[in-house]
Amino acid sequence: MTTTTVAYEHPEVESLDRDALRALQERRLAALGARLAASPDWVAHFAQAGLHPRDLTSLEALRAVPTLEKSALRERYPFPLLTVPVERVSRFVATSGTTGPPVTFGFTDADRALTAQQMARILRCAGVRPGDRVYQGYGYGLWIGGVAMDWGLAAFGATNFGIGPGRAELVVTWLRDHAYTACTMSPLWLMTLVTTAREHGIDPRRDWALRVGLFGGQSVSSTFRDELEAAMPDGFLAQNIYGTTESGGPNLAISCPASHDRDLMHLINEDTILTEIVDPVTLRPTEPGAVGEIVVTTLQKEASPVVRWRTRDLVRLADDPAGCPCGRRAFPLIGRIVGRSDDMLKIRGVIVYPSQIEDVIAAHPATAKEAWQIYVDRTDRILDDATVAVERRAHAQHPAQRVRDDVSSALHARLGIRLRVEVHEEGTLPRYEAKAVRVIVR
User: Fold this and answer.
1) Residue 370 CA to its chain's centroid (Å)
2) Are 187 and 240 within 8 A, CB to CB?
3) Per-residue pLDDT for 328 more than 70?
4) Do residues 51 and 37 touch, judged by C-beta distance below 8 A?
5) 150-153 long-range CB contacts below 8 Å, 24 or more apart?
6) Which helix (H) or strand (E) holds 70?
7) Strand partners, 309
8) Which distant-in-sequence residues (6+ apart) come within 8 Å of 44 by Cβ?
9) In this predicted model, what pLDDT tens digit does every residue of 21-38 receive, in sequence order?
């Protein structure tokens, strides 16, 4: 794949209304079905519901197709549902493997070009500009995050410093000396960099030139985001970004300057990645304002397409999904990821998501926002109790007992149940450069 700059402004798509976008999606669904009809594995998958890939002609037909989960892919090891010869695959990526063996996904040259275009649109929507100096802090290896961002930055015409996560002491100096104007990384990693910078006499507000950051890998509360922005130069925007390995990268959703303050993101690539927000039990579409699971269908991916892939990520569809002042009416607005359907805890009959606990921790002035855990004693997530572990900032005015009491009371007010709270000294709990693991069985 070349690194020729792609056209990242798509007014013919981004100005569409929802009906026109649906018509485009249905045309591409039919073309996808025609491609999948040549794959015996995909024909067998559709046959589970008495369907054939060529039945994929409308959104209504799509909703009748069986959903796709990792178990189905692992059964087809080593190259699950690959629709081109391996010789045509120019790059493989893989899932993290945090919930089982990693699953591989292939990219043809055309797939890489498609991802580059999707990422360029993401960058533009967030407020990155061609020519920006970008600290690219997502990880590499087989993980899609860093490589997809590299493809997008090259196509967009930005200057990429592809450092990845880690080497904090070097990075905080380069942020000053190289005058990076944009960044992409885990929000927890930026908080770690802020702390490291201050320890080395560097004031991020004064000494860094960052204007915008794209933060993914895990969702964080609006309070945490506000604290990040307060530590940065005036006007800095922390934009939420969301995607999955299965969709082709961090290419599904991004906040724009107009949706940022409302903590909302656009499903900005719905012309090439069809997204459903569904009830995780019934799989029926959710109404505006309701929480549902994100299910994705890649409309134009060649090598490893997915149809109705269950991400297990839960999100709230905005009350007015088309109501953004930026004018993108066809690309629905969603909130930040509130949790995963497989991370959900049921404690003494109450449904608890880790994001609810993070909201409480992030709101307390004496806690470390980037370091906390939930300890449980069973894997089935139906529990009689759980323990929340937090860190007390080293220079906090609040003693440990007061932090424990405050967090315990705030959790009770938020959840309606009381949980045990442990308070540790700063630097005790794990930090994460990429995806954080919050629920620990011990």
Assistant:
1) 17
2) no
3) yes
4) no
5) 151/1, 151/112, 151/115, 151/116, 151/119, 152/115, 152/116, 152/118, 152/119, 152/120, 152/122, 152/123, 152/249, 153/119, 153/123
6) helix 70-74
7) 68, 296
8) none
9) 999 999 999 999 999 999
Query: What stretch(es) of the chain map to CATH 3.30.300.30?
Result: 345-441
Class of domain 345-441: alpha beta
Amino acid at position 206, single letter: R
Count CB atoms within 10 A of the CB of residue 396: 17
434 near 145, Cβ under 8 Å?
Answer: yes
Per the CB < 8 A criterion, the answer to whether 261 and 241 are in contact is no
Model confidence, pTM: 0.84
As given in the structure block, the two tokens for residue 149 are 């961002």
Three-class SS of residue 117? helix
Query: Tokens standing for 207?
Result: 């000494």
C-alpha 240/C-alpha 225 separation (Å) is 9
* Residues 126, 308: Cα–Cα separation, whole Å: 27
3-state DSSP call for residue 432? coil
User: Rounded CA gap, 375 and 385, in Å?
Assistant: 9
Q: Strand order in 333-340's β-sheet? A: 159-161, 133-136, 182-185, 212-215, 237-244, 249-254, 264-266, 333-340, 309-317, 291-298, 273-278
User: Which stretches within 285-342 are classed as H helix?
Assistant: none
- Phi–psi pair at 334, nearest 5 degrees: -125, 160
Region class of 349: left (phi > 0), else alpha (psi between -120 and 50), else beta: left
Q: For position 345, what pLDDT does the model report?
A: 84
Residue 341 corresponds to which amino acid?
S
∠ CA 190-8-132, rounded to 5°: 40
Give the residue among 151, 156, 136 at the shortest CA–CA distance from 10: 156
User: Rounded to whole angstroms, how far apart are CA atoms 21 and 361?
Assistant: 40
In a 13 Å sphere around the CA of 17, the CA atoms on its Cβ side amount to 1
Q: What is the tens place of the pLDDT at every residue in 399-439?
A: 999 999 999 999 999 999 999 999 999 989 987 766 677 88
Q: Positive or negative, the Cα torsion across 382, 385, 391, 392?
A: positive
Amino acid at 303: A
Q: What's the chain's Rg over C-alpha atoms? A: 22
Q: Where in the chain is CATH 3.40.50.12780?
A: 1-339
How many angstroms separate the CA atoms of 67 and 295, rounded?
8
Residues 167, 168, 172, CA angle at the centre, nearest 5°? Answer: 125
Measured between its terminal Cα atoms, the distance across the chain in Å is 46
1-339 carries CATH number 3.40.50.12780: yes
